[in-house]
Sequence to fold (261 residues):
Amino acid sequence: MGGQIKDYEGRGISGDLEKDLAAFRAIFERDSILRVREFHSGGDIDADCALLYFDGMVSVAIINDSIIKPMIGQGTLPPTINGGTGELADKIVKHVLYSNETAVTGDMADMLRGMMYGDTLLLIDRSPKAIVINTKGWKTRGISEPEDERVLEGPREGFEEAVMMNLALIRRRLQTPDLCIEFFRVGRRTDTKTYICYLGSLVSPKTLKLLKKRLTKSRRRTLSKRRVSPNRKRKANQAIRKRQTPKRSLPLQKNQTKSGI
Fold:
């Protein structure tokens, strides 16, 4: 489904948990790092709930301690609040959750923005509003500028060995539902996790199909990065710089026009 965030502005959720989950799964049907955690909150809340977030962008400890524990462990509302008027999501934010930063919203665009920036979305059955909870927990200390791809301007971030950190870096830079991340396993022996990242509105379906076919039909035993010798790498960089350097025109000789006459 994908699309842009602006396509979902003004759209709300139905309050039916199954239908709302189906809608979000359709939006991110080609995103392999979306995680959905369904559970039942007992006590005074007594409702089915679901958490939606992107793997690698959140803190699992915050989700467990600040959301799941209080929701499943007690789910108790004060006697003066329980059964009264008001939105259930507002009551949960004020009296149940431990998080220091939350927002109740009925706009699907706000929900998507929060999820794609590392927040967790809490959907509650029979509630037309959802709760966006700050659970950001991506890694930033280890990301550094690649040694062989230095730049003078712009961000100095680069990929590392952990694939989830790399996917989180891409998702933070491209905060749009149009970003698709598909998961494969390649290598008969190593069974290496492999991800294809692309924008659904820009990708060529024919090229994408061919790439998937080559990956899934590959008979390679292993999939790893080939090491390049420093001498070969230096020559390649020199060739690139040479191509990028504009050619200087030779000065005209005396009694010679531009046409060479």
Remarks:
- The chain has a mean pLDDT of 80.
- The radius of gyration is 26 Å.
- Strands lie at 34-41, 47-54, 102-105, 120-124, 130-133, 179-186, 192-199.
- The CA atoms of residues 13 and 222 lie 45 Å apart.
